[in-house]
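Z., the sequence and structure:
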Amino acid sequence: MKTRPQLQPINAQDSENRDREIVMSGDTGEAIKGACNKGKLNANPSCFSANTANERSDRGFRSPEFDVSESALNAIVVIENVGNTAESGTLSVTVADGTAVSGEDYVPTAGLRVSFLSGEASKEVNIPILDDDVIESDESIQLSLQLLGPSRPSARIGSPASATVKIIDNDKPRK
């Protein structure tokens, strides 16, 4: 099993604006041989590029809460693909009533799927909002993510795995 090289400072002194010299080492602790085993972090950026072949792909909501006005056409929810973005995959997004009611406060949304192609870091999902004339408290929709199909071991649901859409009421009391 491959692991990432360890970066160890060899002259880490507590002074600002000071160059740091590092040595890269593997599992055994021995320095990795080659032109890039020692140097300044900005000296040769290609020496410090990450190998993402064994890195996980975490897919989760950008935020645990998304706010939308009741007068908006859609709640826009962002799902992020963090880590190994080279890996494609599909997620199921479950949309369920919180205090908001499907068919009254938002359009029923079943079978919602989000597919990430290789290299994609985020996707937007639109949940249609229904505006009414009822003066009410803000309402909520609950969202959760699940991996679909045979997933690779490096793909997983990240954090947050669930989110809330808060529908902010736009109706004012009549005078």
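The two ends are 71 Å apart (CA to CA). The longest strand covers residues 74-83.

Let me know what you think.
H.
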